[in-house]
Amino acid sequence: MAGQLSGPPRWEQDVFAGDVTGSGEWTVYGLPVRRVHQYGARLSVLGDCLATETELQRGLTAARQGQWRELACWPGSYWSVVDEPERTTVIGDLSGSRPVYLAAQGRAWSTRATPLAEETGAGMDTDALAARLVTPTVPEVVRGRTPYTGIRRVEPGRLVHLTAQGAHTVPYEQDLLRPATNADDTLAEALLLGVRRRVAAVDGQVSGDFSGGMDSTSITLLAARTTNTPMVGVLLIDAVSSNGDDVLHARRAASEEPLIRLYEVTNRHWLFDDLEQAPATDLPFSDACRWATRFGYQRVAQCEGSSLHLTGSAGDLLLSSHPRHLAELARRGEWREMLRQATAWARMRHLPVASTIAAVARASRLSRRAALAQLAKTLGTPAPPAQRSDPRHGLAWAAQGGAAAWLTAEAREQLVRSVRAAAEETPAVPPGATTLMGELHEFGAYEAELRQQVASTGITVHAPFLDNTVVRACMAWPWYRRQNLDGPKRQLVMALQGLVPDVILGRGSKSAYTGSAYAGLRRNADTVRGLVEDSWLAKAGVIDPNVARTDTARLLAGAPGPFAALETLCSTELWIRQHQGAAHA
Known about the structure:
Blueprint: E1 14-17, E2 27-29, E3 33-38, E4 41-49, H1 53-64, E5 76-84, E6 87-91, E7 101-102, E8 109-110, H2 113-120, H3 126-134, H4 139-142, E9 152-153, E10 158-163, E11 166-171, H5 183-201, E12 205-209, H6 214-227, E13 231-237, H7 244-255, E14 260-266, H8 291-303, E15 306-310, H9 315-319, H10 325-331, H11 335-348, H12 353-364, H13 368-380, H14 385-388, H15 409-425, H16 432-455, E16 461-462, H17 468-475, H18 490-496, H19 502-505, H20 514-523, H21 525-533, H22 536-539, H23 545-556, H24 563-580
Parallel strand pairs: 12-13, 12-15, 13-14, 15-16
Antiparallel strand pairs: 1-2, 1-8, 3-4, 4-5, 5-6, 6-10, 7-8, 7-9, 10-11
Helix pairs in contact: 5-6, 5-17, 5-18, 10-11, 10-12, 11-12, 13-15, 21-23
Protein name: Albusnodin/ikarugamycin family macrolactam cyclase
Pfam families: Asn_synthase (PF00733)
Organism: Streptomyces monticola
């Protein structure tokens, strides 16, 4: 299938290189840049790099000796570019929140895909869009593809050598999941260093999310307590959903820290509100339809003149256990612990315990190749609506999204072929590591678009959990032991004990916000129907509009259904309309 996207906007913050010659001729638009030179070589760090000048010089020395990993060991979120007489080397981060994109044949690169597509005349890759809709966390299927034909994202953890002969990618991080005995101390050091240097680098007010949850609240408290800096803490109060527990914890934590000035913002914006005003992002952003809610409370930072707003983004991903870890426990022979946790997980979701344990046991016997083969089979035989929302689907190593049921026969057949081809090329190895890295890279892509969307509203957001140093520390813990499904994040508790009050570190609960999401859907029913009825993806042959309309109607009536898939579909349609502009209106 093929499509055409016309008129993408030019970005204020991107790096673009034309034909690659190795001469170091590339252009920066809007991003902060720091440079050091040595013996004809130049290191440029772009974005929010918190290294000292001495550390930059040492990094360039190490890079000239081929020790490229040293350029990805500083606090902050940034790209590194080393220009030598006949070669340019570009390094993003470990999560992909600082992505690097290559055009066909590696003749051009950029930190944004859209300007690269504009310069090269790339059209739409609808097969890639289908894969991103349905299998965004399956790296073997997504394979770094973007919605633009011939524009690819370099896999996070790999660098790009660019010469007159083209581009060559190699890993600079060999084993991100290598266990470490002092992982909790390393995490504390990495978080402290990242937070302290961020606060020291700004001249003005500092703010942070103060939800009452462990991640964002801990980051904001660390900033206040370890730098003795007055902070604005922003708490969103949702009148529809049951976030009362969050509010109580946030208020109590703020009362114990005089440096925190708590602002409580009642939610007056809803999911799907004001989509015509939503800032455009480089690539489709799954949370684009929530922009009004996010800006509604983060604008407090803007009004307070904040130069830095801290969030706990990625904390859940890096510090929590996914139900798939139950299968890993079984694979390793830890049956007693698996049975205890699987029983608790099933009972919390009102599922039969025996069938849940059986599903865990089946998953424990799958290799990565077998998991992909199973995914291909599942994609080829769509489940009826009543079975799509079964929580046990979350135990699958290679999961499909709810939008799978909306694919046309042609799009489904193509995606199944892609998954089968990936299965044939994948070794029969344990699936856990690949699954975990796929989720990290998908979240990095999410964060890249989130940062851009929020920045367009005048707010500078930082997520210290996505610093390379913090990601390494989190990944150094065995992922299947991170957390009991019904308990606090043990790794964060051990790392921040004594630095963050127990009222936050001792939390074993998490508030739900589904009520607010459904209220937003009902409030903006006409907008959502319009996006589904006039779907570009339907016209391009990717989704069946009749199936999408049926599921949308069920959701609007309050019935269970693929809510996340609907939100992703609407976000993708919004992105297409923004980039096509008047041509689509």
